[in-house]
Every structure is written in structure tokens, then in C-alpha cells.
Amino acid sequence: MTDEYEHYEAVVVGCGPGGAAAAARLADHGVETLVLERGTEAGSKNVSGGLIYAEESAPYAIDDLFDGFREAAAERPVTDYYIHNVAGDKVETFDLTDLHEHDTDWCDAVLRRRMDSWLEERVHEKTSETGGGVLTNVRVNGLLRENGDIVGVTCDELDPIEADLIVAADGVNSELARDAGLMDWEEPEEWFQGVKAVVEMDPDVVNDRFSIGPDEGAAHLFSGDLFEDVRGGGFCYTNEDSLSIGTVFHLDSLVEQEAEPHELLDALLTHPLLAGWLGEEYREREYAAKLVPDSKKVAHPEPYRDRLVLVGDAAGQMQAQGPIIKGMNHAVTAGALAADAFATTRGTADPSAAGRRYAQLLADSGTMDKLRPRRYRLARAVGERDAVTDAVETVLDSPIGSVAIGNPIAKRLLERAYNSPFLVSMLPDTRTGYVTIPTIVGEEHGKTLHWDSEVEPPTLEERIGELTYDTDVGNPHIELRDESFEASGAAVYACPVSADDFGGGCYRSEVVKRNGSEETVVSLDTQPCVECGTCAIVADTTWEHPRGGKGVEYREG
């Protein structure tokens, strides 16, 4: 009998930027709002590169909702933006200031533990005034239904809770989105995997090595042959007293190339280009990883069902189009718009009224066109065909391609193309844009670097050992359904805390003899899991989040 369950006007699941924005805006409207966060505090389960933008065209930015955000919760404003085209030890750098400043009011580097925990305190203050608040260490494990309709949520730690509005801001691995049938984990090509190291560095050293002032910051992107043939690239962002250095790759390309994420990160960390920034003393504060939705393919145009609305990564709202990397700002916009939609439809008998209004606001605000640009869909229809890609690659790999890109006019045109939001947003997801063209640019125009890197990255075992875990003994959150290497072997090298020659990670392969024959099988240990969700896509598993407060706890995020 659901009339015995506790009831709130709104329940927000997750207190990242999308959930915080939704809860704050709901409180502004006087809505009784309960926020449920599965981490020990907000940010302890969150990872981002990460840059947060305030777009001039967006209806909401995070400092519209939270006064003092930039001063209290951000790291540095990003004032310099570059992309480096790498060909071995040759590098040609393009200035991406025009692209970075397009439609930008401001942009800050952030670390999620600091940012989200600050947001949690502000959200608790606001929602407490309307009869709600924030509860941490609570995992929402599914949707409560009555006569087939979504009416609330179920939790591991609490009795079911009813609500007139449920905001799923529970991240890229959203169990609520999957429970509602609005998101699945079937196609690796729809996802990116990001891996990051937070590297300690004194603020004065950051200023000196990146030629910036105390109130300035730099963002550097990397593409070319640095990562062999894996489609994607790297990044380096300056924080107040650290660097965020990482890689982001198409998951299907990682699987196809049988690349190991930690080795790709090490290739970036030890490249001569970073030697002048990192120096001789290298200390990692934290190693982290997460999945990233490719909004061009998965951003849901109607992210709602009954009383449930999806915001942020749970709705696939992560814009990654070449050097355009924006997610948290879209989550903030979506969360605030979802709250506004509920406020305008409050009291109606139609359970889907708020969801329909929310989807309309996303479209009318231009948010959906940024996430799923029509011009990309048109370009993809032609540009991502194998025959077209092979033909383009054949030309570019020939002397004709080198001559065509190797002249000064082509260089200037390419730099202008990199700075065009219109052209970047229609870039097909092929090896051509991520690897081939940047490599030729580096070869033909780049300067040879003669620096020697002194960086010795920690081993994978050391990285796992430095993370903080509260293992949920006896309650594994992943079940390996098919142990055959054919079904689940991709997880051995695609999992960021596993490797083919490493026996201490989550996934391991071994050869076993059965009835006179040999077979390679996969085994699983969830204890070192960083909860990125990669294996849910590339292996045959049953995957869910650990219970509230259990599992990995990020100190940086």
C-alpha cells in the first residue's frame, strides 16, 4: 500500500551540478524537495576533467543559482586554450581562443569533490527551508510503481519514497534511466571513457611553468599519433595547486585496438611536451575514471517518463565534439529547466505534464541543438561510412595528402576550422579527425622537442592502492554472467584498473584446462572497482552501484 510511504513533492537523486541545480531551483519555487546522494558527501562519487562553462546563450549558469560559486568552489578561470597536434616528438600547436570564448561568459577548472560538497551545503540550506534537505549515504536502486506508473523511488537504506516529481541526476550509470527504459548500455560507440590523474603542483610553480598569473588558468588538448590509432585525445587543465591530466577515448575504439587506458594516460604523462610542465618531481594525488555519454548519439530528446525526468549524464547531456568539451553546464541548465517545468505544471493531474514541458524547454532554449546538432547527423550519414573513411585515409596517407596539408595556407585554414563551432560540431567520429590529420599537421608543421621526460608514473597497483575504498564485503555490485573470453575478455584491457599482464585489478584472464582442452576465461574481483561502468558495456555482466557510502571514495574527483 503506497499510501503508507513517505511523500515529498520532489525527490532529486544525486547532488552533482545537475541535481544541485534542480534542487536549488525547486526550493526557489517553494517546492518541498528531498535530495538523495549515495556518496558519503556529494563529490565523493564524481569525476570530471573538468571545465565548467557559463554560456551566454544558456538560460541558467551555475553562478545564477549559487552566489559565490566561483570564489568558493572553483579552481582557476581558464584564460588560455590550446590544442597540440602530435607526431612522435614533433608538435604543432593551435590557439583555440576563438572557439573557447565563443558563447562563453566564463569558464573555470574544477575538482568535483570540492565543488560538489560545497554545492551540497548550499542545497541543504535551501531545501531545508521548504521542508526537505539532503540525505547522504543513500543509494536509490529503482523506481516505485503503482499500477504500472512511476510514483516514487526505492532505496537500499530507506523505505520507498513517493514524489510528484523524480529528478534522476544519478550520473552516466543511471539506474533510474535504465529502469525506466530511457537509456541502455548496448553500444560501445555511444560512449567515451575518461581516465585522469590529479598531479600535485605548487601554485607558484603552476603560474611559472604555464606562464599564467594567479587568477589565470590554461587548458591544453592533445591529438595525433600519441595514442596510436585510438580515437580520442588528451587534456591538461590547471587547478589552484594541481593539474588535471587525462585522456578521453571512444569506447569502441579502445576495444577495437585492445588498448589499456592506464598505458594511454602514461603515454601522455611521459611525452616530451609535458616535460617542461611536470619537471622532475611528479606526485599523483589521485587516479580516476568514468564513462562519458556521447550526446550526439544518446542525448535523449524526450528525457522523461511519467513523473521521472532525467538531467545531466543520466540523460546523455555531455557535449563532446572535437575540442568542444562541455557537460556540467548543460546539466545545470537541464536541472534548472526541469524545476521550472514542474513549477509551471504543479498540481496538474497529468503525471507527464512536467516532463513534456521540460523537453519543450530544452528544445526552445537551444540546449538540444547543442547536444545533438542536426549538421552532425547529416555529416555522419556520409562521413562515417567505412568506404568514405577508407578513401579519405588513403588520400591523406599518400604524398598528395602531406602536400595538401603541409603548406602554410592549409595550416591557417585548419587553425580557423578548429576555431569554428559550426565546423567542429559536424566533425565525423573517425580516425581522420582524431589521428590522421593532427599527425600530418605535426609532421609537416611541428617543431621537434628535445626535452627528456623525468616522469615515472605510478604503477597500476600503486594507483589502486592510493585510492580510498569502503568495500561492501559480501555484497558485490557486479556479477560476471559469462566468463568466456569471447563474451567478457574486452574488460580485461578496457577496464581502467585492469590490464592483460596485471593480476590485481577487477578483471583477469587465465587459461584453464577442462576435459583435455584449454580455454581462456575471465574472472572478476570488484574490490578495486572505480565504478566507471565500462565493463557493463564491453562485458557480459550485471552491473549496479554499490550501496550508499560503499565502494570507492574520491578525494579529488
Concise synopsis of the structure shown:
The protein is of the alpha+beta class. It has 24 helices and 26 strands.
Task: Determine Rg (CA atoms, Å).
Answer: 23 Å
Oligomer: single chain
**pLDDT < 50 stretches:** none
Distance between the termini: 41 Å
Main β-sheet, in a few words? 8 strands, mixed
Question: What overall geometry do the principal axes of the alpha carbons give?
Answer: globular
Average pLDDT: 95
* Strands, count: 26
Q: DSSP helix count?
A: 24
Helix content: 25-40%
- Sheet/helix structural class: alpha+beta
Strand content is 25-35%
Looking at this protein, list some descriptive labels:
eight-stranded mixed beta sheet; single chain; 557 residues; globular
How is this structure best described in words?
The protein is of the alpha+beta class. Helices cover 35% and strands 26% of the residues. It contains 24 helices and 26 strands. The strands form 7 sheets. Strands 1, 2, 7, 8, 9, 10, 16 and 17 form an 8-stranded mixed sheet that branches. Strands 15-11-14-13-12-4-5-20 form an 8-stranded mixed sheet. A two-stranded antiparallel ribbon has the order 3-6. It is globular, with a radius of gyration of 23 Å. The relative contact order is 0.16.
Topology (SSEs and partners):
Layout: E1 6-13, H1 17-28, E2 33-36, E3 51-55, H2 62-65, H3 69-73, E4 80-87, E5 90-95, H4 97-101, E6 104-109, H5 112-128, E7 133-135, E8 140-146, E9 149-155, E10 161-168, H6 175-179, E11 191-200, H7 203-210, E12 218-224, E13 232-238, E14 242-250, H8 251-257, H9 261-269, H10 272-278, E15 284-293, H11 295-298, E16 304-305, E17 308-310, E18 319-321, E19 324-326, H12 328-345, H13 353-364, H14 367-371, H15 374-383, H16 386-396, H17 399-405, H18 408-418, H19 421-424, H20 431-445, E20 447-448, H21 460-466, E21 468-470, E22 478-480, H22 485-488, H23 490-494, E23 507-514, E24 517-524, H24 534-538, E25 541-543, E26 551-553
